Amino acid sequence: MALITCYECDRMASDQATACPHCGAPIAKQAATPRTQPVFVVNRRVGFWLGVGIFLFPVIFVWFLLRQGHSTTSRVIGFAWLALVLVAMASGDRPSGKAATNSSNQTQPAKVAAPAEPMIEVSAQQLAQAYDRNTVAADQQFKGKRFKITGTVDSINTDMFGNPYVTLRGGINQFMEPQFELDEDHANYAAGLQSGLRISLICTGHGDVAKTPMSKDCTPVN
Description:
- This protein is of the alpha+beta class.
- It folds into 3 domains: 3-32; 48-93; 120-220, CATH 2.40.50.140.
- The chain has helices spanning 27-32, 48-56, 58-61, 72-93, 97-105, 124-133, 135-142, 187-191, and strands at 3-5, 12-14, 120-123, 146-158, 164-168, 179-182, 198-209, 212-220.
- The strands form 2 sheets. The chain has a 5-stranded mixed barrel. Strands 1-2 form a two-stranded antiparallel ribbon.
């Protein structure tokens, strides 16, 4: 047997009684209807450090808002901040189309061609003396470069490949006269030359053989 509170007079009565001895209210009806306990929901607040973590590292800390007790407003704000951060990260990885277009459309400054060096003009004697004094210095001045040479024809010959060349007077001795190979288009020109004729050629320096200056790709000056 247990004592219960009468719902009419709030006095104590036995749960076995059919009616309250004080007011006569039926006890059985009260016993049959159990009292429901109120459910208390604890509302969680977003703490300071959780808020800092969500602000700085939303990907890691925002899932804490899914725990029971956090308000819908807190969850909406947290997940909205997460989405904003993710969008900012994604857009930061892509190059700006406008910037790329501007850089590609920039007008490249026109390259100013360097002024051509004036062609060297030298006599056969000066060329031979330059190689006799210092072969290295002479190569730096003439080898691989175009220059105008003037002199008197000493001989007209062909090399082992049948290419015509002439020697001009002015060498250190008769066996070291400078040699000038003509290209194939001027074979007829070489055929019309004679010893003692003064000519001018434009040639490319080809170094030396035992201090004898050698030149190639020579063309006559009209």
